[in-house]
Amino acid sequence: MRLGLAGAALASALAIASCGVTADARTGSPAASGDGVLRLGLILDSTGDSQYLSDAQRAAVVLAVQQANAAGGFGGKPVELLPPESGTDTGAAAQRLAKAGADAVIGPTDSSRAPAAIDALRAAKIPLISPANTAAGLSTYRSDGYYFRTAAPEGAEGAALVELARRGGAKTVAILHQAGDHGKAEADGASAAAKADGLTEKGSAEFSGHDAGRAAAAAKDADTVIVVAQTEGQAILAGVADAGVPGSKLLVSGDLLGHYGSALANHALEGARATVPGVFPTPEFQAALIEHAPGLTDLTFASEAYDAASLAILAAGAAKDDGGPSIASKLTAVSGGAVQGGAAGEKCTGLPACLAAQAKGAVDYEGMSGPIAFDSHGDVTTARYMVFAFGADNQPKRDGEVTVAR
């Protein structure tokens, strides 16, 4: 989840905590420090715009723990899921989980809440794996190697939008982004991808408030117009349409996806497409989640949360130790990421299959959200996005997916 209302505070924290060089738990070789019982913690957002996403993440982590225990648990003992922590004080929630004996923690959703959790868990030498943080600056936030995420940093969405433009035959592209850290990060990702793909930028600009129409008017001659924004979607898209940009030329970031209908002029978005982070869960995975949470309707970040919990369990298995430093040191390997001197593991999809494979040797976990392969920052190296296409009624329908390497 991108920056919330505390975006300025996050930016300040990132600037302070990105400095300095310390030991990296991702590449360490720690001595065993666990007590023989693998305990997972979960931090959920109970307030703010991302609160509604908590149920899916909780159900996904519960599913992973139950699957692990059905396969024999960890070291013959059940994997424990500690009571989830929530509230506005993420640092305090992380500290409570550390005191309760958590060996790895899943969460939080909102990127602005991540630094406090990272700080607390870094001090306790406990890995934090977020299924939803996308703020680009978190890649270099000081975690001493205890921070990972199964959601791609936001700049990757810009690259995905450019990939759609390239597939559509565009030779020139205008990248319009809303002022702010999020918009700049995605625009930078799009600009870099356009250059790499040989596309020429034509009319790219930053806009604020209702100035999107003015920016679009200067960019409408480009083959494709990409619009990146977090807020004011209806006003922004109305301004773009009024500027003469047809939907057939328009690609928009996921925060602009909406059921606009008659709120916009007829056909305003016809042919436009939007990217949304993640992939649509398979029917089997959906059924398994709903079995544990019958009222679940929104599955956003469920796949990423399941993957986060599964990777923590597999990392403990690879280390043969439930200590936090041991788990952190094996997360990259079990995710399929490059490890110096390490042999490639057997590819497997889903936790039950990977646990069975791990009984025979090293594994390369392929997640419900796709390949993971953590890099040196704990970020995924493959980003997958669902694609939605707008019809003449300004309503979106799912229309495939796009994958980009990072």
Automatic annotation (TrEMBL):
Residues 39-335 form the Leucine-binding protein domain. Keywords: Signal. It holds the Pfam family Peripla_BP_6. The keyword Signal applies. InterPro entries: BCAA_transport, Leu-bd, Peripla_BP_I. Residues 1-23 form the signal peptide. Belongs to the leucine-binding protein family. This is Leucine-binding protein domain-containing protein. It comes from Sinomonas cyclohexanicum (Corynebacterium cyclohexanicum). The lineage of its organism: Bacteria, Bacillati, Actinomycetota, Actinomycetes, Micrococcales.
